[in-house]
Amino acid sequence: MIRLIVTILILTALNKVINAQEIITDRPDQTESSTTIPNKSFQMEMGFGSGNYNNERLSFLPTALLRYGLSKSIELRFVEQLGVYNNKATSTTEFGLSDIELGLKIQVLKKEDINTEIAFISHLIVPTGSSELTNANYGTINKLAISHGLNNFLDLGYNLGYNYFGTGNGDLTYSLVLGIGLSNRIGMYVETFGEYSDFTEMTSNFDSGFTYLLKENLQLDFSMGLGLTQKMNYFSLGFSWNINSNLNKNK
Predict the structure, then answer these.
(1) CATH code, domain carrying 10
(2) Considering the domain boundaries, does residue 121 fall inside one?
(3) How far apart are CA 69 and CA 127, in angstroms?
């Protein structure tokens, strides 16, 4: 059983950078891809899942990332989540929407003769969410996304970022993901991610999952994670669909 889990764990970052799969997504792992979607295409990435964080439980029904290719190297991004929040310590339960995120991804580097891609991602958080699902302040999420194609089957991706939610010093964030391609349709990954919260406390986590390509523009995914330095666990199911685009134009 352990060998099976380890085998399953070694593969989905691939959907970020490997050539075998057509659609390139920012889910299910925590590491954002270093590639923008094709020009004038629309892509939706939807997830359904639940997570426990100490005495709190948060379920998403669903979480949605909407992406639009503004040009060959720039995409517009919109994030919204419908969630159920439960605090076990206070027996508090709330159903509602989270804060809206409006963002951009800009392709900084992409050349066929090198194996490295770089993109910059920035989101503005607008405090529109329900009382237990909002940060109550404007904020920003920023990431530098980098990937390396090590060979035809092995790829490495990582993000370095800084988030600010209106109070304190903000958080430094990181993620590192390794993927292997099993076939033209199946990918899997292993990943570590975490943050240096308010420049005072370091947390680290682990997650893994897989993707299955139904069509060149439609992908299913599953992921699960746990905390290494904190009490945390989650699972998620989702799909990504690229609409009205010629995916090969972005190659």
Answers:
(1) 2.40.160.40
(2) yes
(3) 26
pLDDT digits (tens, 9 = 90+) for 97-156: 999 999 999 999 998 788 899 999 999 999 999 988 999 999 999 999 999 988 878 899
What CA–CA distance (Å, rounded) separates 204 from 77? 27
173 close to 184: Cβ distance less than 8 angstroms? no
> Cβ(237)–Cβ(13) under 8 Å?
no
Residue 249 lies inside a defined structural domain of this protein: no
Q: Which domain covers residue 66, as residue numbers?
A: 2-243
Alpha carbon 207 to its chain centroid, in Å, reads 12
List the one residue out of 34, 86, 40 whose CA is nearest residue 60. Answer: 86
Number of domains in the chain: 1
pLDDT by residue (tens digit) across 154-186? Answer: 899 999 999 999 999 999 999 999 988 888 899
> What are the phi and psi torsion angles at 118 (to 5°)?
-135, 135
